[in-house]
């Protein structure tokens, strides 16, 4: 093995990485030359590991992970992912222990979960992983990192795919030069839109067998009107990212954009190492601002805005050194995430430049006690007026650089018109006249993500449809007047629209029980939805009053109702 493991790429696809640990696992589980290692053995008489009860991983995350072949750390695609998880490993383990102590999680079953980030593969041509250390976008990598860590800590059996050949081996449609191991049918597949198209191309017509297992990581969301191929074609809503014909809740978003999709989320990294904490103990928060923008294009036409801020604060940046930025900016260049955390804890204001939209950085700032200056977008940006959103399968209007942060509001987030110096100065004066404590919603902590993803995995079922989840006891029916969406109507009542309840309400008997004014006379009638893929929380109608299924939610854990945990 030491001499020949590099002779065929298939060894790498089985998790062999040159370490003795990976050799032993390969020899015990692929050609079965050696006994199974402790902790990996399947109990006698059990042939399907989906029947094995899961346990939270309480060991050092990466000691465990490297010895299970979960992380193909030798691959460039996962270098940044590996670095992020390693920097947070103890936080993940502690969060797993904490959640396990609070809830009875002993009846969960381990699932085989295939993770295939299509946009990270070389075949996609996007080169996201290549640019991760030089100022490229990190949102997708953050979410993949946190999902992989979550699934592993929850005790599931992960199969990580980094290329189309990896994918084909995982799905049992390609043989390799290595002794073949039994192909395990996944219970769940996490991918993205690029990866879904790769899966469809690899499996051809047989991909339908896996369709209900798919969960698509989709940063900005996919609304039902764009997801339905025929409807999208008929209403001129087609795009590369739409027409996938999945149940809308199979799309997993970074932020809770639309109730039609599932909020998967990510974790806001705000913890520092013991060494970094020691460095900060002797450092007071400085009279400085840190600008949110790693690329020169983000700074274009923002000098007047920055000039106003510079009158109040020393300005720092973490931008490519070749960028033409104001001379008064103290630029640190592209730095590691841990260095950004230090800068945030030293700064009083984190300055948004209007782009990138809805990134993790705004929440990282307020988690470190640094107020976020959030540029208002007026008129709101959407696919109708902004090139960035042209191909996005959503009609959502983005009212600021980070609408989720906007909803958190003052004193943590100050949404301002950056063209109006008076508005900017008002916010700066208020920020500098108070002490802002760190704040982080529970849903963006490690424990919050573990709770949410565990609940979703255990309860969301698009294959059998044998139960309604969330439970029907959470249903609250609300009327939406003409030109009002169910999302709006539910929100006005302090609730959230729940698409899982649409099929229940979409019957004469259940509707009549819930809404006593729905009669069948000459002046009033009820219209039902004939196509379940077109149930929509976000659509409004010019001539119809909508009957909306709403539910409550846990504060700072919007994906879950109060009866869901």
UniProtKB/TrEMBL annotation:
Main location: Golgi
Subcellular location: Golgi apparatus membrane
Family: Belongs to the glycosyltransferase 18 family.
Membrane topology note: Single-pass type II membrane protein
Keyword Glycosyltransferase attributed: yes
Keywords, sorted A to Z: Glycoprotein, Glycosyltransferase, Golgi apparatus, Membrane, Signal-anchor, Transferase, Transmembrane, Transmembrane helix
Domain Glycosyltransferase family 18 catalytic per the UniProt entry, residue ranges: 10-550
Catalytic activity: N(4)-{beta-D-GlcNAc-(1->2)-[beta-D-GlcNAc-(1->4)]-alpha-D-Man-(1->3)-[beta-D-GlcNAc-(1->2)-alpha-D-Man-(1->6)]-beta-D-Man-(1->4)-beta-D-GlcNAc-(1->4)-beta-D-GlcNAc}-L-asparaginyl-[protein] + UDP-N-acetyl-alpha-D-glucosamine = N(4)-{beta-D-GlcNAc-(1->2)-[beta-D-GlcNAc-(1->4)]-alpha-D-Man-(1->3)-[beta-D-GlcNAc-(1->2)-[beta-D-GlcNAc-(1->6)]-alpha-D-Man-(1->6)]-beta-D-Man-(1->4)-beta-D-GlcNAc-(1->4)-beta-D-GlcNAc}-L-asparaginyl-[protein] + UDP + H(+)
Entry EC no(s): 2.4.1.155
Pathway: Protein modification; protein glycosylation
Top-rank lineage group of the source organism: Eukaryota
Entry's Gene Ontology BP terms: protein N-linked glycosylation
GO cellular component, one term: Golgi membrane
GO terms of molecular function: alpha-1,6-mannosylglycoprotein 6-beta-N-acetylglucosaminyltransferase activity
Record protein name field: alpha-1,6-mannosyl-glycoprotein 6-beta-N-acetylglucosaminyltransferase
